Fold:
Amino acid sequence: MTFISRTRTRGIETLALDSPDTRNALSAALVGELADALADCGKDADVRAVVLTHTGNTFSAGADLRDPPHPDALVALLRQIVELPKPVVARVTGHVRAGGLGLLACCDIGAASSASSFALTEVRIGVAPAVISLPVIPRADPRALARYYLTGERFDAAEAARVGLLTAAGEDVDVVLEPILDGLRRSEPQALAETKRLLTARVLEAFDRDAGRLTALSARLFASAPAREGMTAFLERRDPPWVL
Structure:
């Protein structure tokens, strides 16, 4: 079974998260396969940029609660996207939840259709958006994050763009992306790589400074009794006991 589908058009490699039955949840297997695909793209001189997208109606539902990746593996994947010497562009036409926003925030450019929706739902199952904070906090408006981290509320693509989690949103995401991909195709590869290094320096500083602490926090919270109850309630489609 494969979890990533790959296509290429005029130097743009499209990697699609392709596990719609699990809402493209970040399982250990999916994370590993995506890391391998990204490594291939990074070494391929014919790849000008990478588009990260999805099949089904969900970009990613976050960590797979039945087969979660180790926090270190998730940190490594997120850092790999940030450090890839090719621009990575997120193309979203559905829902993005929890850890899925970590993938989105690592991308250099993000575009979504107006039908997309977003939520940082970790607090609702008894954990915190720990590891994904490495790219999310440097990218996004802190007052907006305080609201959405603490409440788990859903917000739309226009709001995601307003607070810095997306570059642009529109009714047709491919129309939004057309001039962006055209610009990347017109850009010299080494110049793209060096310009990306300039833009991602602050994000990588967060990885260097905070990855160990946030990985430990994630592991501790996921092993806690409240998280076990929260994840069980989520899988059983019921409210956990702390809901008033």
The mean pLDDT is 97. DSSP finds nine helices and ten strands in the chain. The domain at 4-172 is CATH 3.90.226.10 (2-enoyl-CoA Hydratase; Chain A, domain 1).
